[in-house]
Amino acid sequence: MQKVLVVGQTPPPYHGQAIMIERLVKHDFDKVELHFVRMAFSSNLEEVGKFQLAKVLHLFKLILEILKVRFKHNIRLLYYPPSGPVKIPIYRDLIILNCVRPFFKKVIFHFHAGGVSESYEELPTVLKPLFRGAYYKSDASILLSDFNPQDGTNMRSKEQVVIPYGVADEASMLNGSVVKPQDEILRILFVGAVRETKGVTTLIETADLLKQRGVSGFEFHVVGPFFTDDYEKESKEKVAQLGLEKEVLFRGLLVGEEKQAAYKQADIFCFPTFYEAETFGIVLLEAMQFNLPVVASRWRGIPSIVTDGE
User: What are the structural domains of the chain?
Assistant: First the structure.
């Protein structure tokens, strides 16, 4: 039996990486014994990537917990999801990995977020040795798509493989209580963290453009938590200024059957992301379960899911 220590975030907050790590640690493997240490740096998206004193305290508790579990269960293989190209999470990784990697025989990096290798040249010279100590020469690296930054290869991983995400077919399990509305309204759905780099401002501007052209009978349903209070205020003010209150609907975080119902009732899925750490887009798979045509940006791993014209 192969023992693996998984270190990572599970919901809350809700985002693709946390959801997929939760599915990983809840899965029952035949020949793998998983042990899990949960990162809990952020309880909501507003806190993600921001410095807080409580996070510093949690950082050292996390390191001690990783080492405690490692020696208690004699685990020699570490599974770790590196940060994307964001400064504070990179600094967090540098501390954690330089402290714990010497105690593991092997390490696997799973790049749920992409692009951390592209941050190396921007680091202060004094931090570059720590960066190499944390990220370089892993035993294996897992990418989600060939279109993503080649983080494993760039950081001299001994092996790099591409394993796309898969999700359970929730559409087939949805009971008959949710039906598609029989009206003339075209419902365009977005699901994800509500932030500018996910393309939400683009959605608002698209709604305005359609309205200016005399198009009527459409709604943009934006499902997900706002990344910051400032962006929530900015987005809602923009919608009000453009008179789009009936066309752009912020639905908030939906999970479970409520989220499935949003997919079921939609006509088109739109995902115009240019998020710096984007790798795959689980929401695209979820939309396809419900037979939704997908309109998405040609960015990072998205072309491995969405083929133009198909």
Answer: 2-162 (3.40.50), 170-304 (3.40.50.2000)
